[in-house]
C-alpha cells in the first residue's frame, strides 16, 4: 500500500506492498 525505492516482487525498482 506504499511505494518504496527498494526491491519488488518482480525486481523492478519500487516495493509494492
Provide a descriptive summary of the structure in words.
The chain has 17 residues and is mainly beta. Helices cover 0% and strands 24% of the residues. The chain starts with a strand and ends with a strand. It has a two-stranded antiparallel ribbon with strand order 1-2. The protein contains no helices and two strands.
Question: What labels would you give this structure?
Answer:
elongated; two-stranded antiparallel sheet; mainly beta; single chain; 17 residues; 2 strands
Tell me the layout of helices and strands.
Layout: E1 3-4, E2 15-16
Antiparallel strand pairs: 1-2
Q: How are the strands of the largest sheet arranged?
A: 1-2
Q: List segments where confidence is low: pLDDT < 50 over at least 5 consecutive residues.
A: none
* Helix percent band: under 10%
Strand content: 15-25%
Main beta sheet: strand number and arrangement?
Answer: 2 strands, antiparallel
Number of helices: 0
H and E order: EE
The class by helix and strand makeup works out as mainly beta
Provide a concise account of the structure shown.
The chain has no helices and 2 strands. It has 17 residues and is mainly beta.
Amino acid at each position: 500500500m506504499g511505494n518504496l525505492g527498494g526491491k519488488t516482487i518482480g525486481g523492478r525498482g519500487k516495493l509494492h506492498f
